[in-house]
Amino acid sequence: MNGELRFPEGFLWGTATAAYQVEGAAQEDGRGPSIWDTFAKTPGKVLNGDTGDVACDHYHRYPEDVRLMKELGMQAYRFSIAWPRIFPEKGRYNPKGTDFYKRLVDTLHQHGILPVATIYHWDLPQWIQDEGGWANRRSVDYFVEYANTLFRELGDVVPLWITHNEPWCVSFLSHWLGQHAPGHRDLREALQVAHHVLLSHGRTVQAYREAGLSGRIGITLNLTVVDAASEDPADLRAAQISDGNANRWFLDPIFRGSYPADMVEIYTEQAGPFDFVHADDLDIIRRPIDFLGVNYYTRSVVRAGEDGMPKPVPPAGPVTDMGWEVHPESLYRLLTRLRREYTGLPLYITENGAAYPDRVVDGRVDDPERIAYLRDHFAAAHRFIQEGGNLQGYFVWSFMDNFEWAFGYSKRFGLVYVDYATQTRIPKASALWYRDVIAANGIR
Ligand SMILES: N#[N+]C[C@@H]1[C@@H](O)[C@H](O)[C@@H](O)[C@@H]2O[C@H]12
């Protein structure tokens, strides 16, 4: 790549984390248990039996972390709010929970860093799960009450709100594939969960408008590009189905007010009638948002299984420590598709990054692969912008190494290395490189 690629004036450069992955303080100041506390303590669910009990101790070390963000030139910080801190039990609001986020947001403002709050990043209060979780339509009302509480307490100091992080993971990964909390394996339940999460999104957008706040609200979807392994019609259809599950199942309701017909036919056959979809639900889900958050990590390649359903094909090219193919051109393809087929709204890359087996050598962490990964993905984003794409910001996942869900602490996504034994933070070479990218508002 020759020459410098400069981003538009005002382009927002930041990093992202999530409450259960970084905060620790799992029982502090009235926090109640979440489904991830339960899941992580269930033998065999998380590698090495790791939990988020301590994590990066961000709950106590946020002043140091925010100072480091400032030193690294970060302009924005996307964090999530832990619902079980705010409503630890049914019907009981915990002001101490909100107070932590007020302290965090105030510290961010003091350092000139824009707070971006994700309302839900997977840590459902266990008391709601005990009532059926997201599969129970009542969860929608609980979510709106929680969101309204946040808008009341933080609405005037948080300018960007994200209702949900990755509804696909909340529904299919957690209730069909069983890999995330609560670890269920039931397609019909996953479809109900997806619907109620989307409905809670729409209801919350409505509540935000009614609150008369001056910020902006959107949703973050994990999206990908699905390629067929061959031009064989069976493989092409398998790719279409995989795209329907990964992308269109969420994009269509939000931007078109309907579920994709081809997938409704398949899922009705596999999981029964959609009697959990009420008459005006889709009109609520499609409430206009101000921006779309896109989490992109990799593309997928699929072939048709014997049943015609998509089966993953192992990556042929370079992969990260997660085994995910490094495929920056698919970020450009994804963004271009979103603009062509769904929306001209502002887009933010709310997560993009890579795990690599980082090591501390003489007090330093050299991570050239991560620098190359980020550079190539920034270049793909820049190409989209150059062609008129409305991309307004980029949040690298993650600010620091953290609890990587079922992988525990075995995968390091951070720009900043965390020594979990001492809680020492060490900016990796990629953090210093990113600092220079932000300062130049571009890449060389
Ligand atoms: N795996 N992985 C890394 C990263 C995960 O740590 C985030 O919590 C999710 O939002 C999204 O899956 C992406």
TrEMBL record:
<feature type="binding site">
    <location>
        <position position="297"/>
    </location>
    <ligand>
        <name>substrate</name>
    </ligand>
</feature>
<dbReference type="InterPro" id="IPR017736">
    <property type="entry name" value="Glyco_hydro_1_beta-glucosidase"/>
</dbReference>
<dbReference type="GO" id="GO:0005829">
    <property type="term" value="C:cytosol"/>
</dbReference>
<keyword id="KW-0119">Carbohydrate metabolism</keyword>
<feature type="binding site">
    <location>
        <begin position="404"/>
        <end position="405"/>
    </location>
    <ligand>
        <name>substrate</name>
    </ligand>
</feature>
<feature type="binding site">
    <location>
        <position position="165"/>
    </location>
    <ligand>
        <name>substrate</name>
    </ligand>
</feature>
<feature type="binding site">
    <location>
        <position position="121"/>
    </location>
    <ligand>
        <name>substrate</name>
    </ligand>
</feature>
<feature type="active site" description="Nucleophile">
    <location>
        <position position="351"/>
    </location>
</feature>
<feature type="active site" description="Proton donor">
    <location>
        <position position="166"/>
    </location>
</feature>
<dbReference type="InterPro" id="IPR001360">
    <property type="entry name" value="Glyco_hydro_1"/>
</dbReference>
<protein>
    <recommendedName>
        <fullName>Beta-glucosidase</fullName>
        <ecNumber>3.2.1.21</ecNumber>
    </recommendedName>
</protein>
<keyword id="KW-0624">Polysaccharide degradation</keyword>
<dbReference type="GO" id="GO:0008422">
    <property type="term" value="F:beta-glucosidase activity"/>
</dbReference>
<feature type="binding site">
    <location>
        <position position="21"/>
    </location>
    <ligand>
        <name>substrate</name>
    </ligand>
</feature>
<dbReference type="InterPro" id="IPR018120">
    <property type="entry name" value="Glyco_hydro_1_AS"/>
</dbReference>
<feature type="binding site">
    <location>
        <position position="397"/>
    </location>
    <ligand>
        <name>substrate</name>
    </ligand>
</feature>
<dbReference type="InterPro" id="IPR017853">
    <property type="entry name" value="GH"/>
</dbReference>
<dbReference type="Pfam" id="PF00232">
    <property type="entry name" value="Glyco_hydro_1"/>
</dbReference>
<dbReference type="GO" id="GO:0030245">
    <property type="term" value="P:cellulose catabolic process"/>
</dbReference>
<keyword id="KW-0326">Glycosidase</keyword>
<comment type="similarity">
    <text>Belongs to the glycosyl hydrolase 1 family.</text>
</comment>
<dbReference type="InterPro" id="IPR033132">
    <property type="entry name" value="GH_1_N_CS"/>
</dbReference>
<keyword id="KW-0136">Cellulose degradation</keyword>
<keyword id="KW-0378">Hydrolase</keyword>
